[in-house]
Write a sequence for this structure.
């Protein structure tokens, strides 16, 4: 992994930790992880790489985003300190 990929890798691991902490909906993920920077598509890339998946039918915003076995494995093998969100705003990613 190149040095330029390190921030994206860290954000991806932080996202996986966020998803693993409690059930999240697609709407939660869009709200907390959207970005205006096309190079930081963290949650979209996690979906493409099979680290998380969307389950459910009906309204798209109500579908659940869940961590996959591959995502859990990525978290277990990561050697980065991951801080889980805490407090009143735990539904949002830390800024």
């Amino acid at each position: 992994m190149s040095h330029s990929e390190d921030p994206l890798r860290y954000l991806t691991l932080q996202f996986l930790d966020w998803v693993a902490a409690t059930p999240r909906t697609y709407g939660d993920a869009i709200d907390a992880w959207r970005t205006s920077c096309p190079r930081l598509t963290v949650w979209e890339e996690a979906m493409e790489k099979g680290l998380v998946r969307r389950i459910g039918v009906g309204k798209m915003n109500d579908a659940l985003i869940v961590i996959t076995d591959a995502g859990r494995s990525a978290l277990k093998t990561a050697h980065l300190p991951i801080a889980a969100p805490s407090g009143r705003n735990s539904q949002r990613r830390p800024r």
User: Anything to note?
Assistant: The chain is about 40% helix and 10% strand. Confidence is low (pLDDT under 50) at residues 84-90. Residues 6-21 form the longest helix (16 residues).
